[in-house]
Automatic annotation (TrEMBL):
This is Polyamine aminopropyltransferase. SUPFAM superfamilies: S-adenosyl-L-methionine-dependent methyltransferases. GO terms for molecular function: spermidine synthase activity. Residues 203-229 are annotated as: Disordered. The gene is speE_2. The chain crosses the membrane at residues 7-28, 40-61, 73-92, 104-123, 143-165, 177-197, 237-257, 263-283, 292-309, 321-340, 352-371, 377-396, 401-422. It comes from Variovorax paradoxus. One of its GO terms (biological process) is polyamine biosynthetic process.
Amino acid sequence: MRHPGIQFLFAGTIFSSAFLLFLVQPLIAKQILPWFGGSAAVWSICMVFFQVVLLGGYAYADWVTRRLRLRAQAMLHVALLLASLAFLPIVVGAQWKPAGTEDPAWRILGLLFGTIGLPYFLLSTTGPLVQSWVARTPWGAQVYRYFSLSNLASLLSLLSYPVLIEPRSSLLQQAHGWSWGYAAFVLLCAGTTLYMARQWSADETPPPSPTTPTTPTTSAPGQSAMAGTPPRVADQLLWLALPALASWLLLAVTNHITQNVAAVPFLWVLPLSLYLLTFVLCFESDRWYRRGVFLPLAAAMLLLCAFGLQNRIGAEVHVALPLYVSGLFVLCMFLHGETARLRPGPRYLTRFYLMLSLGGALGGVAVGLVAPHVLAAYYELGLGLMLTALAAVAVLRQRAWLRGCCVALAACCTLFLLLQVGSDRAGARSLQRNFYGSLLAYDTARDPPSDSVRQLAHGSVKHGAQFLDPARRRVPTTYYGETSGIGRAIAAAPDGPRRVGLIGLGTGTLAAYGRRGDVYRVYEINPQVFALADEEFTFLRDSAARIERVLGDARLALEREPVQGFDVLAVDAFSGDSVPVHLLTAEAMDTYLRHMRPDGVIAFHVTNRFLALAPVIAKVAETRGLHAVLVHDEAEQAEWLRRTDWVLVARNPQVLSREPVGAVATPIATEADQRPWTDDFNNLLGALK
């Protein structure tokens, strides 16, 4: 163990494992997003999987280091590393595609275990296992810096995916590239493992005894200075609780800003990056986390974030986004900083990491799996803020005045949470939540009363409205007026009985265009949307057309169905404020074309604050020999209509020149070097306005 290069071997093994660990997360999530409606909840379930498997990896590392001699550790670990190569390449098989009626959360967890379970498990074991070996070396006092290094690698990996990897490679290339990288890691990790086993063989100097005192480089308050001093039970409970709350806040803030503030692509990367950065800073050394700085900042952020949940500032993007992102950073600095202050000596290193990982998994499970089933809306952030204030009571228990301040903070957070719940329920006719998000149906009174409407909101985005006045309830509103692209496309369809497909239901507004003899076939992935359209709105039952319903992802359903012969197909499915990407690719266009009549029109709803999707669809149409036009409607003729953009696609350009489409249709410019989106390649970053 005298060669200084061994430090680089340890560091390289830990860095590569953490880099691959976080690189596979967006890669695998992007593979399965199309099968589950492109819902942001897919990422939350993936995070739960990653945290649970990470917990398993840390438990494994803790068990083998306490129960097995180093040679036995090496034999077991190398065998598992070699067995994990059977999972390569990490391409999700078609057998995992959902039928549309099962619970998406359990389906996602099952396919993740079956696709990347063992490789991800072994990557997650590397950090604590190798660090337990580092603790036996002469530089073992610096062991926690390796934990900081692993989080830095995770952060670099996470940021490199949307900026460097995704825009330059297809999904298949990414999967194969990662698989080759993992194979190289297996060789590196196996080499490190065997090297350590050989160095500590029977004829070598034995490693330090577990009871030998070992003093860390910097001893923080509350840290066991001696390796053999058992940590207190209260400290071990905090090892669990503080990381659990950090993980809870990470997912809760991500849900809040992506669902209730702004559905910006890759916005989830920002909170996760800051979460990892706090790990890097707090475990690199004790100089970054200062109680005198972060305790007052954390108190202020708790109050501001809790207040924003029941005030309009919490939904205004220019205020809420910096508030909740900076709040997450400050609160995670507090939670991870206090965790780092409680870190034990090297003897209890793997137990410490196990408790830390268990806490992260519990926080993720609570928000990702439990909250959608027990909370009617996104109340987990308010709960997390309240629990963080209560955790501060335990952390600062030795100072009475600080305990009192924390109790007062918890009371304020509780009050603001109750006000949030009361505000939601005061105007709500229906408040429901499931895997696909939170749905709110509510009435808005206007003067004159005939202008009063009932609306449907998904997070911060409104997905339709209906007049309460019986005489006006069949009038198309919001994005679906007669002057919108879809209104004009239906009006331009042949005069005979029409067959219209609707991908995405909302309130069912487009059924208002149905005539006797028409057939409107609706594809909707969320069963609660069907229920709300029937219970709270009347567009479907008032329609003269025959309504057919298909539950499940529209594209998967259309791939399985016989030819439908649509005159018009409206692609109007939204996840938050964005159309799921898998409905905009060349392969999706091929599926739609199979179901269209020769003179049929495919209408894509591309109204979006953040993405320029019209050129994306135009490029896909161009590659398939189709014709595309943009219909922009300022909706100035009525207050109940919204400004919209629809892209209409057809085989025959003359279809797009019919009135009332031709008078307002405009061509769409595309770039010569623009790559068409496919199932294997799409670049949301390049589509940002």
